Amino acid sequence: MCEGISTWPTFHTHLYFDGTGQVSRVSGESVGRLTLEGVDLRQVVGVFNRETSLSDDDDEDQDDEVVPEETAQVEAKIEKRSRRKSGLVVATSQASTQAQLREQVQHLMTLQQPAQRTPEWYAMRKTRLTASDLATALGESKYNTRFSLLEKKIGMGKKFTGNFATEWGVKYEPVATEIYERRNGVRVVEFGLLPHPTISFLGASPDGIVFGCHGDCPGAQAKPSPLDGHMLEIKCPPKRQITGIVPRDYWMQMQLQLEVAELPLCHFLECEFSQYRSEKEYWGDSQETERGMILYLWDSQEAKPAYRYAPMGVSRQGMAAWTKQQEIAVAKSSRYGIRDRVYWRLEKYSLVVVRRDQEWFASVLPIIKSFWHEVCYYRTQNAEVLYRDYGKKMPVEELEEEDCDGLGAAPVITGFLSESDDEKSAPRRGQPVKGNRFLSDSDTEQTPPVAQRKSRAKSGTEGSRRRAKRFVSDSD
Questions:
Q1: Apex CA 373: angle with CA 369 and CA 379, to 5°?
Q2: Of 48, 81, 114, which marks where a domain is finished?
């Protein structure tokens, strides 16, 4: 039996399908539209989802019970009847067999890739446009501008040292990964920075890819899983509300990750965690949900936090024994010191399947190449040229081929976003596009008017001119 979740208007309704695609049972809040065959399949965005709370009706065994034949029939109906703009479709690629997906994952494992957040990883990122920066390069980021990304890529931008949200995500990403593995009975393989197979300036660092079963089963990686080849992208927002809808910048990030890895699907996992005020409160909580303890360390060598994770669901005696072992190990090390014990619990768990959209990626690839040509050009110039000529036509003919390895023929470049080309970038929220892309119709109401966006672009250009003026004055 396959399990799904309806996400409009809420993602707390569970739909259980039998082998013919019929809805055999509905649990949770009664929302959504019931139509042909008991349910409107256009509302379904997840087959392997479930609520955080574990009830008698929703035991953990159902999470591990994934029947490919049943899934294929449900997915076929969804694929045929669902053509929403969101780009969120629950469908395993019929063209990619499990054997082919496993072979592709094994190939990715053989590639040279620096581990995430190592000096080699950061150095390699400087020479590539990575998935997390794609929305910014397309002028679609809510947080950064193309100009700030350009500064960063040519080595002039202010170094980002992190904030509360990023540190929260780093702390809880391993926890979310383990919860995903436990609920789906799989093993997630970590990857570093993967290079694009044909475009040398593109790269991506997926949070993980499913390969093999979970736990201590013999030959885990040799045992096939129905989810083998599914990429995993994890977000643990400390404040942002989890709605079951993928934000556009994350959708774009996953598209580049799928292109780099040449995989058809990505699981977008969002988890909301809360922290107990004390150990007493932790042991006094009787609600059944995933919870545990994190030992918060300070790495004196790297001058940053480090974390060690207690076994999930361990007893009070087991927790005490594990903590004692860690304290002894830390005491023998001159590098780490214990700062705190963080007791946590899972509040929300949302899993959405995002399908690779090769047509969309092909449509924005010229914009991506155009941006990288600007990066390559300004790397050969000094800072004064960047601030003086920003937004003007770039002399592409002066660009040497070796400065933009992998780009091929240089497209005509007229600069960054201007009032005339703002609408030529990646589609705006609510803009009609072909195929399954971006957010739902409800997100259209959050879109600022075009005039307002142009005003922002204009003010951004004026800001760069002011910086250029200050730079010239300082250099004089």
A1: 145
A2: 81
